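Job type: complex structure
Entries:
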Amino acid sequence: MLKGTASLESAIENFDILKCMQCGICSGSCPSGRHTVLNIRRLVRRASHDPAVMEDESLWMCTTCYNCQERCPRSVRIVDAVLRIREIAVHQGIILDSHRKVASLLLETGHAVPINEENTERRKQLGLSELPPTVHSVPDALMEVKKLLKSCDFEEIVED
Amino acid sequence: MSDKVSLFLGCLIPNRYPGIEKATQLCFEKLDIDCKDLVGASCCPAPGVFRSFDEPSWLAIASRNILLSEEMERDVLTLCNGCYGSLAEANNKLKESSKLREMTNEHLSKIGKEYKGSVDVRHITEFLFREIGADTIKLNVTKPLGLRVAVHYGCHLLKPSRDREFESIERPTFFDSIVEATGCKSVDYPDKMECCGAGGGVRSGLSDSALSITNHKLSRIKEADVDCIINACPFCHLQFDDGQKEIKTQGGEDYAIPVLHFTQLLALAFGYSPEDAGLQFNVTDCSSLEEKLVHEG
Ligand code: SF4
Ligand code: SF4
């Protein structure tokens, strides 16, 4: 917990969270907030003093469209902060199941969305190579990706 | 910046919408663009999820994709806002910070590679606009399309603006101008610059939240009475194309608006058939559009 709390403080400082004057321009520009429970103005305020912000599910309702950050009159780096707070949360094991699944696809295949049978068939019909010229058709390249992720301890970070 | 590029495919195009890959090949041939596949590339990795999980891993995988292009002495060309955002931002971060570069190269040394920071990352729309130009595109059009279209820029093509150099993020025009070069009319509509709803890991994490944003955007496009949506990103493409089915399945509106990536539209304007461009593989039926094209032709 200590590591996370310390990082949250640095996020508050690095991304100018304390400059927020609660004007609400961010939440007024937010396409997600119109339809979901995300209130980015409130989330920014909460981030400034409450470490439990990491458990707030609305953190994951931000599409990172950057409207808020572009328009904030105080130049608070809102989205950069959201990404960092998510990262701190994930490092503490707070991650959605479906996101863990996407992470395991990257670990296994080098793609977040790997090929499937339906699409090898489509590729053939279009006159493309059955497998794309990505890690999918170059085993050594996939090994490189796996080694890099290992070097970064990525699996430990996202696992249960 | 150079006009020699390597093509970074990402995940969704080769693995879910290969028609976009095919259409891109056809267009590049026609425009005589010097482009080679970035062989052995991986996921960019997707910024909304992987950057949110662990920034060092995100930088390591992104830098490997970029250095493959450095080895070819070519700029990286992306067909996706997500790949563009991820790779361009990682590239900028690594160019700017010697500390991040050192950390990343430490990881890369384990696979015998080094990131140098010698190339740029491009997006198909700004590349065509800047390097080829709307006039040249127009000269190459053999079948002016005459469609009314809703252009969707998507977020990460333009924002965060600190990493990009465009005339305006609130009312840009460069994408519209290359769309109109195909003989289409880019119709203005409310909330044109708004998000499709998919980004930031929202589609994969909380799909209902994503879908409600998408539904709003689709309702605005519907009001504009267009023949199709034109995007520049396979993730927006998926969200609009597949999202229409999901909305309908959940008892919502049946929008039935065909969705095309810009390269598919361009291929049609260069005289290729809807099948050549892979429109038959879309989730939302494109036959209304195809009929229109036959009548125009
Ligand atoms: S726009 Fe900026 S200053 Fe205003 S509430 Fe949002 S973060 Fe605070
Ligand atoms: S970046 Fe996130 S919080 Fe900001 S306006 Fe977009 S969806 Fe809302």
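Summary: The longest strand of chain B covers residues 5-8. The CA atoms of residues 27 and 96 of chain B lie 35 Å apart.
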